[in-house]
């Protein structure tokens, strides 16, 4: 009770002194840390095996004492008073030996507690050293042990630095096997961990993440707007193409009808046109659009015909050039063959005897 009161008083005093900047608290779980240390786990298993052996020895001695008690109880009627007292003294002596042995092995200052203390003390010293370094680096005001006698009614996980202690213990165990370069890397990692635990650094990181998320949101909105515009343009283009196709079909139908009407003009009884009829009549919007489309199609056909003529002329020129080259080559070959032919003269030889 005095210990708890002292701890609470210390907390209150320190909290009052640091009220303006706030109190930073962390806690560890020493049992959790010890279980994570491989050397301690192995030594703990060996110690548990010893304790199990001691318990078996105690159980054997207890059974022997029980047998002596049962024998005395069975033979009490046959024994003299001196023999009974002698056996009772023997049983009491063995019971005292058993109690002493229990205290020696499992008492408050027994072998189990003392060997466990020897086993835990080096690790505890390392843990305390790491805690002091972390407290100075991260400005902790209090660091509690969750597994101690101090009752913690609530502890948020964000204040638990047990895993951090385990990592640094593991690193410290490997330092003797690391090179100078690896040690520098290890120190930089520890410095980065301390930096990430700084509230100001965390606030800056959060602000950067918020800005990054805002930029991504703006980019997504722009992409969505561009996609909507592209879709709208595509729909409008398809609509225009459909309208043009419909007007083209309509114009083709109008041309057929006009041709049939022109064939029937001479047979009609309409009066001859007057001078007033020769004046240009205003065209409707549909007729004007049809005329524009007809002119555009005529221009396109003229361009296509012109391109086709150019292509044909180019092919003809290419064919002519190839024919001329072939004729020249043939002439050169004939001239070469003619020059290389040897002249032969027929000589008549007569043999005179």
UniProtKB/TrEMBL annotation:
It comes from the Bacteria. It holds the Pfam family OmpH. Residues 189-199 have a biased composition (Acidic residues). Keywords: Coiled coil, Signal. One of its GO terms (biological process) is protein stabilization. Residues 177-353 are annotated as: Disordered. One of its GO terms (cellular component) is cytosol. Belongs to the Skp family. This is OmpH family outer membrane protein. It comes from Flavobacterium arcticum. The lineage of its organism: Bacteria, Pseudomonadati, Bacteroidota, Flavobacteriia, Flavobacteriales.
